[in-house]
Design a protein that fits this description.
- The structure is a single chain.
- With about 180 residues, the protein is mostly helical.
- Helix content is about 30%, strand content about 0%.
- It is built from 6 helices and no strands.
- Helix 2 packs antiparallel against helix 4.
- This is cGMP-dependent protein kinase.
Amino acid sequence: MTQIAIITIHVDFGFAKKVGLGKKTWTFCGTPEYVAPEIILNKGHDSSADCWSLGILIFELLSGSPPFSGSDPMKTYNIILRGIDMVEFPKKIIKSATNLIKRLCRDNPSERLGNQKNGVKDIQKHKWFEGFNWEGLRQGSIDSPFTPTVTGPLDNSNFDYFPEDTDEPPDEESGWDLEF
């Protein structure tokens, strides 16, 4: 008996919000390293912020770390506001990937790849994706570049183990909530 599994990657950026086509939102939410400049600056944002986050994700997948990172969220936001052109790309990221990331992470949302007339098709047609079988991806018929060995459906040996966090946070003892 053979078992075929189609893996779906669910990316959790911490929060998500559905925004109508042509609409903007001003909700500040998201994983700090992935937040687009217009969110930080409270200018309102739309799906172009997703293009930005995709660029950050591609950078992190190729390099092992995000392009913008500080010791706390505020420092990360300040680094983001300097822009993608201030980021030194590792030599292992090829030119076409660098170009894709920089086009996804333009400071001006209207200039971002994926947020122009042809939408996502512009991303799909980018040189870095040349030869990629988008239809096969949609149909679930492309082979994975890596197939892990597993002993059964509950085998999690290909994942790192992290012990459960059992530390209780310390009580906040300022008394601010005594009258509730």
